[in-house]
Amino acid sequence: MVREWDPRNASSAEIASLLDTLNAVLAADLPEDPAWRENSLREYLTEVMPGERRISWVAQAEPAADGTPGAILGQVHVLLLGDIGVLEVLVHPDVRRTGLGRTLVLVAARRVYQEGFRSIGVEVVGDTPAVAFYESIGFTREYVETRSVLDLSTVDWSELTAMAGGIGAGYHLEVFPGGPPDELIEAYARAKAEVRDVDDGELRPSSYDPQRLRDSLDCLHRRGMKPYIVLALHEQSGEVAGLTEVVVPAQHPTRADQYDTIVVQEHRGYGIDRAIKARMLLELRSAEPGLAEVQTWNAQANEAMLKVNAELGYRPDREWCEYSVDVAELVHRLDAGR
Ligand SMILES: CC(C)(COP(=O)(O)OP(=O)(O)OC[C@H]1O[C@@H](n2cnc3c(N)ncnc32)[C@H](O)[C@@H]1OP(=O)(O)O)[C@@H](O)C(=O)NCCC(=O)NCCS
């Protein structure tokens, strides 16, 4: 039974059942990833940036004889942003290969089509059944990144302290748990705009103008994801020369997500990349004692960043692929196959 589902007013039992399915999916497909927790899961599924919408559907088993509602065995949601819909689908391992995944994608794709969006994008984790699934329904691979994971128990903290101090004269580092202060937002946005021209095809929205940046930090907080920011400030100009962002999600607080790291072109060559990332890890060690790992995603061509990550102890883990499809073609193909 597939129906539209709004996590905002779903029962706690439904949220808990979805969490069970998500954790069964992780155990089957990504057994080394930490299980998710219920903390802020509803908010994670509900909150979006201004101007974006997320629409969800669930597949629920039949109620039991005593009327107890059936488990949530599958879910799909699509985030409508810009001119694309970003899709996520999951099906409990016990009920896979019965056509449920395809049915869920068709329901979401029909809506995306009706809403006038042209294409659908999806992030697909390498070496999981999702690769064959999306390829079988006509998605094509656009872009591949490598996910790497750092196990904090392997870190040499004294070496890291030296790295954090190894920054060129004329710069200093500042750490901002929760996000940069408002007086630095404009300089922060200017630094982020640096990489705007590098169209890396990412599905994750980036924030380049000050208001969008404030909205994005606010959205992270509402979703239960705590940002930490380390900035390298150029003392002479007051400009942000480099920045790195890590988020500790309430849903999996033992594994943080390393987001953007940017060193502004004219400030490259002063050890800023290494220093800000090392300083970030030192901060996380004291501020988040429950944290065990940090994961990050990099373009395979980004050799400089991969080298610094390797020095810090990050180990490549999985391919992370972006696939996309033309919505009209997808709907016609799936309808024809029914
Ligand atoms: C990808 C996924 C949604 C597929 O769900 P499903 O219900 O098993 O998919 P369907 O039964 O509709 O399969 C449709 C077609 O996809 C292909 N396919 C699906 N799984 C496959 C697999 N393991 N191997 C090869 N082909 C596969 C087949 O062509 C299949 O058709 P067939 O069964 O008639 O041969 C499911 O495996 C899943 O939830 N994966 C996790 C998704 C995810 O988000 N992972 C990342 C975070 S953990």
Task: Give an account of the 3D structure.
This protein has 10 helices and 12 strands. It has 338 residues and is of the alpha+beta class. It folds into 2 domains: 159 residues, Gcn5-related N-acetyltransferase (GNAT) (Aminopeptidase), CATH 3.40.630; 157 residues, 3-Layer(aba) Sandwich (Aminopeptidase), CATH 3.40.630. α8 links the parallel β10 and β11. The chain is globular, with a radius of gyration of 21 Å. The structure holds coenzyme A. The site of coenzyme A has 21 residues, from α1, β4, α3 and α4.
Radius of gyration: 21 Å
Strand content: 25-35%
- What is the CATH architecture descriptor of the largest domain? 3-Layer(aba) Sandwich
CATH top level class name of the largest domain: Alpha Beta
Q: How many domains make up the coordinates?
A: 2
Mean pLDDT, as a whole number? Answer: 94
β-strand number: 12
Termini separation comes to 16 Å
Can you give the helix content as a percent range? 25-40%
Task: Give a brief rundown of this model.
The chain has a twelve-stranded mixed β-sheet with strand order 1-2-3-4-5-12-6-11-10-9-8-7, sandwiched between helices. It is globular and about 70 Å long. 35% of the residues lie in helices and 31% in strands.
